[in-house]
TrEMBL record:
It comes from Psychroflexus halocasei. GO terms for biological process: fructose 1,6-bisphosphate metabolic process; fructose 6-phosphate metabolic process; fructose metabolic process; gluconeogenesis; sucrose biosynthetic process. Substrate binds at D121, G122, S123, S124, N214, Y247, K277. The gene is fbp. Its EC number is 3.1.3.11. Residues 205-334 form the Fructose-1-6-bisphosphatase class 1 C-terminal domain. Binds 2 magnesium ions per subunit. The keyword Magnesium applies. Mg(2+) 2 binds at D118, D121, E283. It is an enzyme of class 3 (hydrolase). It is found in: Cytoplasm. Keywords: Carbohydrate metabolism, Cytoplasm, Hydrolase, Magnesium, Metal-binding. This is Fructose-1,6-bisphosphatase class 1. Belongs to the FBPase class 1 family.
């Protein structure tokens, strides 16, 4: 099917709904509600410098991170939108210690889906006007009707996701998502509030020459990561090395650039972050699902991210994600160092 880049997100969802075996329209409505919430958050992010909404909210989240006002705002908008439509039976968020169950009139607990999200990732960049993002992950509930159950419904391995995506609030606002049938990117026309299919069938280049990592943590990196960074920096003309180092400090932005240009993003474990910094359920799993659907790879340095069995809601894992050949090369260095 030749992609119609004048197609709106709404038209795209309807056209592709048939391909999604589970849906009885609920998943489409779920994606549509995320689309709406993203427009509302985008409006605030775009005027952050003008109103008193940047800076700290005076609270910290379960991660012990200062909550930025926009973090809290974004979290509330996405939760409200999802609750009001009673499409999901539960929501987990980076900003909430525990998950939320949806009490609704119409037997909301029978709703089929749970959503896990990072409502505003990279929020420390807000005050310096660097792009930030929202990341979401959607599963079908596994428990029978009634209250969702943490272990059955929220702690599912990433290979059970039915949809995942991100919104990047950058020079333009884009919604990029997958339902397991490839990855498509939609750009918001803010003048009319409509998303258009601007990036059909997105694919990670098989290889690349951009590596994204916070090298300030170098001394604490595992030896395999140090060896791989050295490899990236070596002169080797036929392999287009040394690579270029690009690190924005906003996962969605680094991931998005690497998916378009080719590259690898790494957040290994460090002295400060014994298991890495990124959260498995609402950062690594959704980005890994998108990466694999776009022909890329995502691992913790040793095993596929999507096969990790979660043990807790906010658990962290080391994260290596991007062009297939680059992730495989990094894993080679990790395995070699481990075998010494
Ligand atoms: P550091 C943002 O807080 C985030 O979760 C990712 O978006 C980003 O890639 C990473 O942390 C930045 O972490 O330790 O390099 O500042």
């Amino acid at each position: 099917m030749t992609p119609n880049t004048n197609q709106t997100l709404g038209e795209f969802i309807i056209e592709h709904e048939k391909a999604f075996k589970y849906t009885s329209g609920e998943l489409s409505r779920l994606i549509n509600s995320i689309r709406l919430a993203a427009k509302v958050v985008n409006h605030e992010v775009n005027k952050a410098g003008l109103v008193d909404i940047t800076g700290k909210a005076g609270d910290t989240n379960i991660q012990g991170e200062d909550q930025q006002k926009l973090d809290v705002y974004a979290n509330n908008r996405f939760i409200e939108t999802l609750i009001n439509r009673e499409i999901v039976c539960g929501i987990a968020s980076e900003e909430n210690d525990d998950y939320i169950t949806i009490q609704g009139q119409n037997k909301a607990h029978d709703n089929k889906y749970v959503v896990l999200m990072d409502p505003l990732d990279g929020s420390s960049n807000i005050d310096v006007n660097v792009s930030v993002g929202t990341i979401f992950s959607i599963y079908r509930r596994k428990s029978p009707i009634g209250e969702p159950v943490e272990i059955d419904d929220f702690l599912q391995p990433g290979n059970q996701q039915v949809a995942a995506g991100y919104i990047i609030y950058g020079t333009s606002t884009m919604l990029v998502y997958t339902t397991g049938h490839g990855v498509n990117g939609f750009t918001l026309n803010p003048a009319i509030g409509t998303y258009y299919l601007s990036h059909p069938d997105m694919k990670f280049p098989d290889d690349g020459n951009i590596y994204s990592i916070n090298e300030g943590n170098y001394v604490h990196f595992p030896q395999g990561v140090k060896d791989y960074i050295k490899y990236c920096q070596e002169e080797c003309e036929e392999e287009n090395r040394p690579y270029t180092s690009r690190y924005i400090g906003s996962l969605v932005s680094d991931f998005h650039r690497n998916m378009i240009k080719g590259g690898i993003y790494m957040y290994p474990n460090t002295a400060k972050a014994k298991n890495g910094k990124l959260r498995l359920l609402y950062e690594c799993n959704p980005m890994a699902f998108i990466a694999e659907q776009a022909g890329g790879e995502a691992s913790d340095g040793y095993q596929r991210i999507l096969d990790i069995n979660p043990t807790e809601l906010h658990q962290r894992v080391p994260f290596f994600c991007g062009s297939k050949k680059m992730v495989e090369k990094a894993e080679e260095f990790m395995a070699k160092a481990k075998s010494k």
